[in-house]
Amino acid sequence: MAKLREPEEVSMDTQIQHMLTVARSRGIETAFDRADQTSARCPFGSAGLCCRSCLEGPCRIVPNGSGPRRGVCGADADTLVARSLLNTMIQGASGHAEHGREVAAALLKTAEGKAPYVIRDVGKLMQVAKGLNLEMEGKSINEVAKAVALAALEDFQKHEGVMNWIEYRGHHKSREIWDKLGITPVNAHLEIAKAVTRNAMGGDADPLNLLLGSVTMGLVDGYSGLHLSSDLQDILFGTPKAVKFNYSLGVLDEKQINIAVHGHIPLLSEKIVEWAQILERKALTVGAEGINIVGVCCTGNELLMRQGVHAASSFSSQELVIVTGALEAMVVDIQCIMPGIQQVAECYHTEIITTMPHVKIAGATHVNFEPEYADDAAREIVERAIRNFAKRDPAKVVIPGGSVEAHAGFSVEQICEVTAKINADKPLQPLIDAIKNGAIRGVAAVIGCTNPREPQDIGNVTVARELLKNNVLIVTTGCAAHSLAKFGLMNEGGLEACGDSLKALLRQLGQHAGLSALPPALHMGSCVDNSRPLDLLSAIADELDVPISSLPAVGSCPETHSPKALTIGTYFMAHGVDVHVGVDPQVSGSNLVTRTLTGSREDKGITMDGLFGGKLIVEIDPVKAAAVLLERIDIKRRTLGI
Ligand code: MSK
């Protein structure tokens, strides 16, 4: 039996440490324990050198070069590793593309009056329609919304040309590079199908060509997934504005009916919030004081960005929300949902409710979600949670005390609304001036996950703190944002982490946002909202008439576990932004692949940096990683002549 890590080694969050101790004392296994039990990892798979593409295999190549050098078909280590990476990218891109398609289908049904949603942000609808060059003259709001939805769905259907969202959102200087390389996507489904085909046995066996296929997956992810989802969700649910929320397991309330919403797509969870309000009085009839919705992972981020719904947990500790014994239902949609939640829930009265027909868990309740019947599903879920309250065992309830106040809702629109109070004609100018005069040394997007194999929050918080003290402005999304919120980097107290010039700027900007200071880490949203940092960089690049690759901007993903984080990172690199990962990306079995991804433009051979102006930085130590990111920021500053 593998030795389990001590709770202090698992997370820097004392509430998580406490709840892990509670789980273990009750004989409940969580992802942290399973990570220890499976710590002996396959050296072939870890290096990307295990091929399961056909029934001749699995073929494995020994990482150090001894033993067979090729699989049965003749594929060598470089091809195996490049294929294995592309496989990961296909998973990431498919997940986000499917997110975008679901939201587009819901918008279409809304526009046709078939789904119970309303267009909450008409201004954003018109802006997107204009960006897509759609005819708006004389059209009603629903007619424009229908045209936008159809343009979005076309990005999963068209057979020639370029994806509409790339035409609309893609930066023209990046486009030139992608077009020249022939990697600009036509439609998401077509590109995903092509990638699966090229990766099959007997398909593409040129490692560099396979790597370009991975970049195409990054673009599919970025445009049919991230940009398309953020735009359409803003239209349906409103563009985020500054909002306050609380973070930690302590947001569960013993006196209320607690419902956790978990996953990524906010279509149903928005309705659950609505129905929790409608059915509030029914909760009183079972002895509860109300209904408390809490967020997990990115569905949590979506709700906190627009409604200030409190957040309970990031990815790696999702099972511990159930261990509190105070959760009546955990409602899940898609992605990042551990099957392990069902085993934990069986030790309590918590009902796990799956909602998508293609994402079910054995033993869980399924309440099917279709946009047309969103109200019915949301009502049924809230009513189930109300009924479950009576089954709660008070003796099992352990909710750690306290939570951290945080500010979120920093869409590009919200940031520009603040900076426009300094320069109404050119809202980006205050940021550009600050970058030019060094008050902001650079901008870093600290994004991605928490990973049960890694000590929770340490990587995310350390990278952010190291950069902040060097006056790097942090924008954040996903579960990394959960880490930064928990450790005080989204409230005024977090200013102590900043260098002097950044601190002064955040205080100045805060006055224009009705706050004493902007938080050091600007929460831009969920995983799909990684579109927002790119939109911000794209607008700054336009203003300066330079490519995005010239800007002193970097991405960092210190604790990732998800293929989606690798495709998001690739999408950033395809725009010329350097990206750090703090977890082994499993490509070490090929020198060629590793050099192409991580090499500099001055190196011999083809590199991502040479092609796009951004490269992959693999560094497990967060302090060293921040130092490398600062070096890269300074190189870009010098290139820009500032
Ligand atoms: S939920 S992909 S663990 S950020 Fe978006 Fe968190 Fe990573 Fe899932």
UniProtKB/TrEMBL annotation:
Coiled-coil residue windows: none
Cofactors, names only: [4Fe-4S] cluster
Keyword Lyase: no
Top-level class of the enzyme under EC nomenclature: oxidoreductase
Domain of life where this protein originates: Bacteria
GO molecular function: anaerobic carbon-monoxide dehydrogenase activity
Residue ranges of the TM segments: none
Catalytic activity: CO + 2 oxidized [2Fe-2S]-[ferredoxin] + H2O = 2 reduced [2Fe-2S]-[ferredoxin] + CO2 + 2 H(+)
Gene3D superfamilies, sorted: 1.20.1270.30, 3.40.50.2030
Keywords for the protein's UniProt record, in alphabetical order: 4Fe-4S, Iron, Iron-sulfur, Metal-binding, Nickel, Oxidoreductase
Known EC number: 1.2.7.4
UniProt entry tagged with the keyword rRNA processing: no
NCBIfam families in alphabetical order: CO_DH_cata
PANTHER family, per database record: CARBON MONOXIDE DEHYDROGENASE, HYDROXYLAMINE REDUCTASE
Protein name: Carbon monoxide dehydrogenase
UniProt organism field: Paenibacillus forsythiae
